[in-house]
Design brief:
It is built from five helices and 13 strands. With 235 residues, the chain is an alpha+beta fold. The chain has one domain: Glutamine Phosphoribosylpyrophosphate, subunit 1, domain 1 (4-Layer Sandwich). A hairpin with a 2-residue loop joins strand 5 and strand 6. Strands 3-4-5-6-7-8-9 form a seven-stranded antiparallel beta sheet. A six-stranded antiparallel beta sheet has the order 11-10-1-2-12-13, covered by helices on one side.
Length: 235
């Protein structure tokens, strides 16, 4: 079991990250998504809540340079499913599910981001709830060690998650130039605390210079009650 705080404190630039799991008493689904940035354009963002999720928005519109890879809806909800991704593939997944198709098929139509030389991976997750039970899936679409001629697609499914456990995936292995992509399976991490403790633990562990925004959500499996927290560095 890994400690999410230690993972983040020991990595100055994991990039964008998704954590999905189940809290210790087994009653709530825990979700987190954060963004970081090194450039002024990437750091000039906030999370804003919308009707069925959240979106990124420029904090200072006058400083927005290229919105193509930084302005998107990271979280959208459709029926009993919550989608969370690091790009506009959120909408691709949403549209496929709306038509009765699947998370996996949606992502088979997408590739990593076209931001040469980094070719940032597209990371995605989905939570599916059915009669007080749930499963979650994670995915990463990445280049073959920086070779943009080859897209590698990985899918991970976690059925009947164990109380107090979750999985964490992020875009970058660490800082660098170009930035190396995440490697291996999603990391098993401990999930603990109420939503405020969960949120604070992640936010305070992210690199102070590079962190931008954090979204967290707890979904009660028995009642369907949703608790959401958003923290933006820009205020």
């Amino acid at each position: 079991m890994n400690n999410i705080s230690e993972i983040l404190k020991n990595n100055s630039y994991p990039g964008r990250g998704i954590l999905i799991g189940k809290n210790a008493d087994g009653k709530k689904i825990s979700i987190a998504y954060f963004i970081m940035g090194r450039s002024e354009n990437s750091r000039n963002r906030i999370f804003e809540e919308i009707d069925n999720g959240i979106r990124t928005k420029a904090f200072d519109e006058s400083k927005l340079v290229d919105p193509s890879l930084i302005i998107y809806a990271p979280v959208r909800v459709i029926d009993n499913q919550t989608i969370v991704t690091n790009g506009d593939q959120t909408d691709t997944v949403y549209d496929f599910i709306k038509e009765g198709d699947t998370f996996e098929n949606a992502l088979r139509t997408r590739e990593f981001e076209p931001d040469d030389p980094n070719f940032t991976p597209r990371i995605s997750g989905i939570v599916q709830i059915n009669q007080n039970k749930f499963l979650y899936k994670l995915s990463i679409l990445k280049s073959a060690r920086g070779n943009d001629a080859c897209c590698q697609r990985f899918f991970y499914e976690y059925e009947n998650p164990i109380d107090g456990e979750g999985h964490f995936i992020h875009t970058y292995k660490c800082d660098g130039n170009p930035i190396p992509s995440f490697e291996g399976e999603p990391t098993l991490v401990e999930v603990k605390g109420n939503i405020d403790e969960f949120t604070e633990n992640i936010w305070t562990s992210l690199n102070e210079d590079n962190k931008v925004s954090l979204f967290t959500r707890f979904i009660n499996l028995e009642t369907g009650e949703i608790e959401t927290r958003i923290i933006n560095k820009n205020k």
